[in-house]
Amino acid sequence: MLVRTLDEITDTDADVKSENWRSKRIVLAKEGVGFSVHETTLYAGTESFFWYANHIEAVFITAGEGEIEDLGTGEVHPLRPGSLYLLNDHDKHLVRPRTDITCVCVFNPPVTGREVHDENGVYPLVTEPEPATA
Q1: Are 42 and 23 in contact (CB under 8 A)?
Q2: What distance in Å separates the CA atoms of residue 50 and residue 47, rounded to the nearest whole number?
Q3: Spatial CA neighbour of 112 closest among 30, 5, 37
Q4: Phi/psi of residue 44, nearest 5 degrees
Q5: Is the pLDDT assigned to residue 66 strictly greater than 90?
């Protein structure tokens, strides 16, 4: 069993910060469970372009409000607590928080925590060796 708190992650290598967002990576590829889990804060008044060409991501909004635009269709959807969006087709998208948005993100395949968005907004596919079993 793994039990981890956000306080344990704050200001470590698993606490990744940018101008537009902050992502605390709670469960990573090294745990060997097939997905990763992050708590991410998207900052009010920003606009972030993302395209997870190598990952599927589910995002559950726990606080804050804004919108997400599907760049493939032009559709804009409101975001608020209780909203979930699933990027099940590697969707290129823009997120525009009106207030700070806090969300829980799940990635498959899991991220290692070392990924950074490239010039296209993409996380590269970085893998970890399989964890040792007892």
Answers
A1: no
A2: 10
A3: 30
A4: -55, 140
A5: yes
